[in-house]
Structures are given as C-alpha cells and as structure tokens.
Amino acid sequence: MGFTKSDLFTPEQNTVSLIFKALGHPARVAILDYLLKVGECICGDIVNELPLAQPTISRHLKELKNAGLIKGNIEGTAICYCISQEAVATIASYLDSILTQLNNNNNCC
Amino acid sequence: MGFTKSDLFTPEQNTVSLIFKALGHPARVAILDYLLKVGECICGDIVNELPLAQPTISRHLKELKNAGLIKGNIEGTAICYCISQEAVATIASYLDSILTQLNNNNNCC
DNA sequence: CGTTAATATCGTAATATTGCAATATATAAA
DNA sequence: TTTATATATTGCAATATTACGATATTAACG
C-alpha cells in the first residue's frame, strides 16, 4: 500500500492534515522562516539561502503553495513569493482549540 | 533519493517539522480529535472508532508518541493514551509567532 | 529574432510511508 | 498453567516523497 485513505476522515481532518503535512519537512519550515525574515523574495533567493538544488526548492515551493501557505506573484521572469496567513491561521486555531480544551478538561492519564 | 537532509537545517526547524509531520496524516489528526473528545482511552477504543486495522492504529500511535504529541500509561494489559500538551504548545507558539510577525510587518507581495 | 535570466517540469533513483495479515509479547483471569 | 485480552512487531506490497541533473517554459532585453 502506501496510500492514505482520506475518504475515511472528515473534511476538516483532511484539510488540517494537508497543511501540517506541508510543514512536515525542515526545508519547507526553513523556507517559511526565510520568507518571514525578508518579507518576500523570489525563488532564486531561497536557492542561494538553502543548500538544496533549484528544482528541489521549486518543488517545495509548489507544495507550500498547494497547501495555501504561500502565494506567488509573477513579476517578469521572476515570481515573488510571500507567506499567506490563511492556512497558518487555520492550523493555529486548530492547535489553540486543542490547548484550550486541554486546559479546561484536564482528565489526562 | 527519498531521504531528508535534516543535518542541513537548524534544530528548531527539525523539531517543529517532526511534530508537523506527525500531524500530517488525517488518521493521526482523527486520533487526536478522538482523544480530545474522550480525554483518555486505550488503543482498542480507537480501533473501534476509526476504520483502520489494529496494527495500523498501533503504528500511528507510535508516531504520535515519538513526536511527543501523546503519552501512554500502562494499565494492566491495556495502555491508556492521552494528549501531551508540550508538543502541541511548541508548534502552536511557532505558528502564533508567524502570525504576529505577519501582522506587524505586512510587506506581502 | 536570438540571448539571457528565472522558474517549472521531466526522468530517474533511493528512501519513506501506509496498510494489513500474521505473529509475538505481556498481563490478567480462570 | 492455560486461556483470554490488549497491544506491539514483523513481513510484505503498494504508493509517496525527496533529491538532482537535464530539459522545457516564459518573459525581458538587446
């Protein structure tokens, strides 16, 4: 096998897990960290910043974009990338809801 | 290839990406959701709740435990699982920090 | 048009993940 | 000790992911 039975779970579970999955690689976290530091940049800047080849960075950017974590604006031959807060807010509120419920109902073993 | 060059990234990037990765599957999100609803439970309860086989649930529980997201207390032949808030708090504060910086410095393209 | 620059896609190889059946382990009860 | 219960591990097959070199695409510039 190796596939995920996503039809067996709720839409929200699938949505948040897809965003979490996109953040489940250090290179993509590093890309977000860099984007946060510089505000916005083009793909080539990230290639210079991280020790990965250009096609690899491009693929990671694609996954971040598919998850809604970044957006890209075409500027001539370059593409200007920046963080999109929506997906971040989605999983942040999911986690905050977990923390709130844990604090209110601390019946942990 | 298929491996991750984790030695190329910062310890924090590796730490948070490992936690995110553990949440990057809908079955593991569903397990957390169920644990949050019932407070604590044993593996068999989750097997009855989710449409996955017992070894598969056991494997997912192992990954959640490795990431620090749950803890398990042995109670006779069963193991009582519950959410551990530390890992949740780690990535929640990481995301909150991103959101704060995005609000303060909105130079997005 | 030809060239350059920036990014994306393709092809391929290696590794990782997912899932289940079968089996192993470990404790409790009879 | 035997049996039942609960969970973990192993072995396997299928799929997914990661990474890079080579190539394609696209737009600006001369």
From TrEMBL, chains A, B:
This is Transcriptional regulator. The keyword Transcription regulation applies. It comes from the Bacteria. Keywords: DNA-binding, Transcription, Transcription regulation. Coiled coil: none annotated. It holds the Pfam family HTH_5. GO terms for molecular function: DNA binding; DNA-binding transcription factor activity. It comes from Flavobacterium cyanobacteriorum. Residues 8-106 form the HTH arsR-type domain. The keyword Mitochondrion does not apply.
